[in-house]
Amino acid sequence: MKLTIHSDLSEESLTYARQLGVTHLKVDGGRFMEGRRGPVQREKLMEAVRLAGSYGLKIGVVLLPQDPGSQHWNIRLGRPERETEVEDVCSSVEVIGKAGIPVVEYVFNLTAIWGSEFGPFARGGARTRRFDYEVAKQAPAEPAFRASEDEIWERIEFFLRRVVPAAELAGVKLACHPDDPPVPSLRGETRVLGTIEGLKRLIEIVPSEVNGINFCQGTVAEMGVDVIEAIKYFGSRGKIHHVHFRNVKGSVPRFTESFVDDGDVDMLEAIRAYKEVGYTGTIMPDHAPGVLGDHRLGHAFALGYIKALMKAVGVPEE
């Protein structure tokens, strides 16, 4: 497996990664666009590849921008502008593939982790996130976000039918992040990728080796399902293309993110499951609690924990 962190490509971030034994990076694709829109520009991306390489690191994942008004925002809203946007995504995938980067991650919701609360909720008062659906769902709806399940699935299918062939040609795998929090509705938005059934439907819409998911363990745990069995289901089918290795306490309607060793999921069994299904891709901490107010310390703890688990079960670092 490839030990990975999300990096802003600053000197400090790259040095941090190198010192902690990280080998691969996830980077934000918006930094290689014009104002987080349009296609990824080859020159900007190749400069990032060269910069990472100068620190002995490789870029393993490019995350398409998620924020309002960014590259595939109108695809998610089902607006006419999606025709232009999907061409931008396809062009981006082509550029990313030519740069030798194997995975493109994306999300298909509009509200992300909205409704979450951040505070001293983890072990020892470390700062982390918690979510209470009973509170979050009282917020007024955003009118533009309203759509039926059928409409949301039509938008997802539109995206996949255009982007999957481009990814196949580019030799790039697609990794869709599940809806986090995995609730059926938030701010009026219908969210269909917050269940195992929804993720199964996603990978079946356009059958292809490149159509897969970012297996965010935290989000799957928030669903209240058996995380180990989910790893085995998607991993045995070759559909896990990236991993967020994190832990939580509780599940919808209320959960709290925890240190990697202090949640409900047996993380040793999780690593064993990835090994069992033959997963060799990128694996990274995500949403680590802040230690003394510094999330880098939380990520350092998680990285060391992941390295130890991998060594314990005989998974080689790549």
Describe this entry's structure for a reader.
- The model has no long low-confidence stretch (mean pLDDT 97).
- The protein has a single domain (2-313), classed as Divalent-metal-dependent TIM barrel enzymes (TIM Barrel, Alpha-Beta Barrel).
- Helix content is 39%, strand content 19%.
- The longest helix has 22 residues, at 149-170.
- It has helices at residues 11-19, 42-54, 73-77, 82-98, 133-136, 149-170, 196-205, 217-222, 227-236, 267-276, 295-313; strands at residues 2-6, 24-28, 58-63, 103-106, 117-119, 128-132, 173-176, 185-186, 189-190, 211-216, 240-244, 247-251, 254-258, 282-284.
- By secondary structure, the protein is of the alpha/beta class.
- It starts with a strand and ends in a 5-residue tail after the last helix.
Report the β-strand fraction as a percent range: 15-25%
Instruction: Tell me, rounded to a whole number, the average pLDDT.
Output: 97
Shape: globular
Q: What is the helical fraction, as a range of percent?
A: 25-40%
Intertermini distance: 6 Å
Give, in spatial order, the strands making up the sheet with the most strands: 1-2-3-4-7-10-11-14
Summarize the structure.
This protein is of the alpha/beta class and 318 residues long. The chain contains 11 helices and 14 strands.
Give structural attributes.
single chain; TIM Barrel; 11 helices; 39% helix; alpha/beta; 8-stranded parallel β-barrel; 318 residues; 4-stranded antiparallel beta sheet
